[in-house]
Amino acid sequence: MKPFEYHKPQNKKNAIELAGKTTMYISGGTNLVDLMKKHIHEPDKLVDLTEAISSEITVEKNGARIGAMLSNTALAENENIKTDYPLLSKAILKGASPQIRNMASTGGNLLQRTRCPYFYDTTMPCNKRNPGSGCSAIKGFSRMSAVIGYSNHCVAVHPSDMCVALVALDAKVEILNTTGETEIIDFINFHRLPGDTPQKDNNLPEGAIITAIEIPRNSFNSNFEYLKIRDRESYAFALISVAAALVLSGNTIKDARLASGGVAHKPWRWSKAESFLKNKEATEENFRQAAEIAVADITPLKDNKFKAPMLTGAIQQALLNCLSNN
Amino acid sequence: MKINHSYSRRFFIKSSSAFAALAFIPLTVRSFFNEVKEKYFVKKQKIPLSVSINKKEYQLEVDTRTTLLDLLRENIGLTGTKKGCDHGQCGACTVHIDGDRNLSCLTLAVMLPGREITTIEGLADGDKLHPMQEAFIENDGFQCGYCTPGQIMSAVACVKEGHTGSVEEIKEYMSGNLCRCAAYNGITKSIQQIAT
Fold this sequence. Notes:
The structure holds two protein chains of two kinds. Helices cover about 30% and strands about 20% of the residues of chain A. Chain A has a domain of about 100 residues: Enolase-like, domain 1. Chain A has 14 helices and twelve strands. By secondary structure, chain A is α+β, with helices and mostly antiparallel strands. In chain A, α5 runs antiparallel to α10, α12 runs antiparallel to α13 and α13 runs antiparallel to α14. Chain A is globular, with a radius of gyration of 19 Å. Among the domains of chain B are: about 30 residues, no CATH class; about 70 residues, DNA polymerase, domain 1 (Orthogonal Bundle), CATH 1.10.150. Helices cover about 40% and strands about 15% of the residues of chain B. At the A-B interface, α2, β3 and α6 of A face β4, α5 and α6 of B.
């Protein structure tokens, strides 16, 4: 690891004053410390946010507000979250291991690097790690890579499960920028597609801090599912994951949410399939058609063609499970 | 063949004149060089740290880069906690911080003042082993033993958290601890025994 100065500001204001080109913020450290060991990130100044940012959680009539420093475990195990936003709880518990969930913060989960094995292999070119050096995955092994929204410069996928649930639940990200202003970013616009600047995973302004996540009140707490398919049953990234949630009136779908992990550089919403499902009957045939609408938009790479039938099946199954699981 | 270890007269003159020349570099140039160095190279920073490990207080001075794992093993000599992958993938370095299981390899020591750390050495009560340690021995919860300290720390936390409802639940909540010898059945049995 490269030597660095360590700072522990006591409040948000002092934290943003320390921002700079070679400054990085740390909270749980589960991703950043690893990347620093590999010399992928080499900050001169490390700013510890554990005292500066709130870890409070409030669940009220109009929605939930989650302090960015709250641990993934505390969020998933919160009784109000389990009752009102169980999809979020279920998604978090499908990610990482108990140790990592204990350490990782809510804000940090959003900021974990979008990645692929070549991003971590410092002997190979990677546009995300070393802009302009080339993408090893496009020419190399692309089995885990994206199937939608990728570019010629990067085919990596965002690894979070929590973020797939948050994008499905129309969450908002509250940030504090370096001029001291609070801004709200819609979750769906928080992460970005690689385009020709794959070194940037998200739209967080430079030096800004995530202070809280807000989830508006919804009725997705009865019919929901988070389905994750991976190479081993636990502690592995998704090949495909699907967050599905329905609001039903009798057997009619009043509102639907469908999102996926393991498919793109950002947590992906299947908006067309959602619109198709609205006001339709909750039948196997309609679920099959919704899955086909979603999968029609993907363009798998040479090694991940299997993701097309896998995604079709996963969306159908997740929607079916919405009817029976809960 | 005889190897000549002595230095030639020419080498001696060359090198000593080079060193002499260095002494004549004006102070201003040297201080400029130092300023540049200060500006572009961050120096190692050592900061004082008071931390409680296995109910014992330690006053230390640590490099900001030191992980809790290296602090335990290298600075304090508590080598029970093992370094497996050093990248948060294997769980061999699992310790408790304020009672919760954490990965010591991904925890920077400087972030820990005021926290209570428990390692495998802090589990037994004097010569009396912790019930989970006894259970691992009884149920063959290990083979080579390298992952065992991490497995036991994780197992104790797993029971405390109450994630022991079924074999499947135990396996899910122990998935952060890998065992290359695959002693998983013994580990699961040990946890079931303590949980019931």
